[in-house]
Amino acid sequence: GPLQHRPARGIQRHKRGQHSQVKTGPINQGRSVGGDPRELIRDGEAEFKALKLKKADLTKAQIVDAIAAHPVLLQRPIVVTGARAAIGRPPEAVLPLLK
Predict the structure, then answer these.
(1) Strands 84-87, 78-81: pairing kind
(2) So what's the pLDDT on residue 82?
(3) Among 3, 4, 41, 56, whose Cα sits 20 to 30 Å from the Cα of 26?
(4) CB 38 within 8 A of CB 63
(5) What burial letters (b/e) apply to 44-66, b meaning 16+ CB within 10 Å?
């Protein structure tokens, strides 16, 4: 399928009072990013450090919960083609999706 570019749609926020819901694109759509799911989270951010979690110990559910609570933690860009996705860091990582 064609390469999709959807700026600002990877994460959508809907405010409801003080609660915020986040849809995390490829994670919730069941797309396969491949590799270790811990690669989806940015552990260098202050928000991650404040959670006092160890990246090596995270479960997939903890990753989704952390990204939902702190969208800045989602590694980006994520390139999506059809049912497959890849983190675009380094840029060469998306080349297998284009074949």
Answers:
(1) antiparallel
(2) 80
(3) 56
(4) yes
(5) eeeebeebeeeeeebeeeebbeb
Q: Give Dmax over CA atoms of the chain in angstroms.
A: 45
E-strand ranges in the chain read 11-16, 19-24, 78-81, 84-87
Distance separating alpha carbons of residues 10 and 8, to the nearest angstrom: 6
For residue range 18-44, what is the model confidence (pLDDT) as tens digits? 333 344 454 554 456 667 888 889 999
How far is it, in rounded angstroms, from Cα 86 to Cα 96?
9
Left if phi > 0, otherwise alpha if psi is -120 to 50, otherwise beta: which for 54? beta
